[in-house]
Here is the input.
Amino acid sequence: MERREFLAGLAATAAVAAATQVIGEREARSDSAEMHPARYAALAQTSAHCVVAGDGCLRHCFGMLAMNDSSMAGCIRAAYDMVAVCGALQSLAATNSDHVVALARAAIEACGTCQKQCEKYPDVPECKACAEACANNIQECKKVLG
Here is the structure.
């Protein structure tokens, strides 16, 4: 019986140690989140939304090109540039990079150009969504610039 009691005690000790480790890891993660808050969370979100909306716009524009309609060529270039800039901005904003402010200036320009191009096609849902995403991202970029 002593052997069974010893093994039961050993198992209980191991369970307590494992639970203590899990609790400690949770506390460390919680402390880490407080130590390193996301300074640009809203900007990371609006930039990511721009990328998704821009990809939708590009998909539509490429479809038009496939039908030999190049009327949206300006929209293609503007959306492509915006997606590239906003993708980079989203990554930098998500990691609190020191380069967010500099890239936010470029994003304002790229989003502004894209917004103007997309607003030429108010009846195209993808372009309308892209223009709105660009407008929202411009607002967040301006907040970062102060």
In short: The chain has five helices and no strands.
